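Dear all,

This email documents one entry for the complex benchmark we are building for the journal club exercise. For each entry we list the sequence lines for every component of the assembly. Then comes the predicted three-dimensional structure of the complex as a token string, followed by one or two observations. Please use this as the template for your own entries, and keep the labels exactly as they appear.
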Amino acid sequence: MKPVFMTYTKKDLINLAVCMFLSVLIIPSFITTEYWYTSILIPWLCLALATIGQQIVMGYTGQLALGAAGFMAAGAFAMFNLILRVPDLGFVGSLIVSGLIAAAFGILFGLPSLKVRGIYLMVATLASQFFIIWMIDKFGWFKNYDSSGIITAQDIVILGKPFTTPLAMYFVCLAVTTVLTLLAMNMARGSTGRNWMAVRDMDIAAESMGVSLLRTKVQAFAISAFYCGVAGALFAFCYLKSLEPVAFDIKLSFKILFMCILGGLGTINGAFIGAAFILLFPVLLNAIGNNVFHGAIDATIISSIEQVIFGGLMIVFMIYEPLGMAKLWENLKQKLSLKLQSSNVKNLKSSLSKKS
Amino acid sequence: MEYERKFKIGKPILEVNNISLSFGGVKAITDTSFNVLEHEVRAIIGPNGAGKSSMLNCINGIYKPQQGSVSFRGQVVPNITPNIMAQMGLSRTFQNLALFKRMSVLDNILVGRKLHTKTNFLEVALQLPKVKKEEKLNRERSEEIISFLEIEDIKDTPVGKLPYGLQKKVELGRALATDSTIILLDEPMAGMNVEEKRDMCRFILKVNDELGTTMVLIEHDMGVVMDISDRVVVLDYGKVIGDGTPDEVRSNQKVIDAYLGVEH
């Protein structure tokens, strides 16, 4: 029998259809409170996109990089300047070019990966974080010489139509995230992803198979920064609606790193799970604080508890399930299908015994 | 009865010219030369620490020897790196297994098809028709190799979970997937039981016979080496002490001394 090769199996297509059905039809018709769009769904999509970027460089290519927020800042400010100075590009064009500008930074700051690895590379990539933020702060041109420190983001206009309501912005984020996620999946499953993983698992063998370490690592850094750049632009324009370098500080980089690790290194769906967890967990804790303890616990204590739990979870996951929540989800699905099968067998047996 | 070979042994395809390699003060290889003929099975043997693996690493470009050169089809290869050698048609396996542990057997072998993959990441991201076509061809070739090595039942298993003997097979498969003209095998049978060794020998000979691939292998097990190789080069303390057919080497006094020890 000849092997049949397909990029997407039937199961993938069903998953995709379910996700699209939920996000395009169910969510908009059942969730009407603005809060959900402006504070949960939009940042979730943006950060999931940035986490995919982090996944590509860290989960797939195995390069410990910490500076996603720097590339996000590059993307966000590139977007601001492009809309301001090159209005002909339009929103989508500007978004792509901002991603490419971030990718250029990615190439620049990915170069140390050829010489250093592990924790030393992490320190080296931190440079991107500090350099980009410093550059934006230092040169007034990037902020259009605005003295207040916070610039309002321009309105989103696509093909002459304004996208200003939370729902409209949600759809913008959803469309961009969906397209880029599909592209990332294609790369991860194809020859590109295999080269990344080969470099991650055993670089010397990869090189002996003709995989160029230079090209593969720099490519991963560039693509990763592209994703972060686009995510940063969406984050600023759809979520923050303003631009300030402080919003893209090291804390955000760490947040994305946590999303990446908790979600599951080397998985695309892990990016979404990790981002959802890190975003929703504080909301959950606050709700518990308000409804169970009726505000008896101070908000600052709750936010400290949140940090403690994140830290603890990181350790637990690193030790017991390095593949993160995506793997837990897989295991759960497997167990359920096994249970289903065994109950089917039981039914069959009982029906057989009845007959006899 | 003399066996008729489909691929007749030809001209030297790979030559090692006066290579010397040292790590700090330790001399691993001293002024070593030998050649490999096209379509032959060539073995490098020698006691522990004789410099066999270092030799392979020099040929493959992982180590840069202080002196000497490597020629491929009569041409000296300048600036030799693993990548350049791979592009010239030389593939290898490693002594301590260098598989991509978290990837499946099929994916490991597919990485071996890298040099037959011409599409770039953008084309892959967009899944253009030519990407699908190329991927299909690469997968078909990989599946062929998998069934050739009789490892169909484990093709979707992550390599890290497989026992040692099977991992060695997968590594051979990955080297085969490159469709190289020369394959270097660094102790392909180390740590295997008799049955696995016999299997491995069969595969090595089958590859050489059916595809005409030139095989250079390092092996400890003298019996195995003498059975399957056309010519043997013996290293001791980084020097060539014997070179010739298995019979010639077996009767070489220096080789006997090196292996059995000699009274001084």
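Observations: The first strand of chain A starts at residue 151 and ends at 152. The mean pLDDT of chain A is 90.
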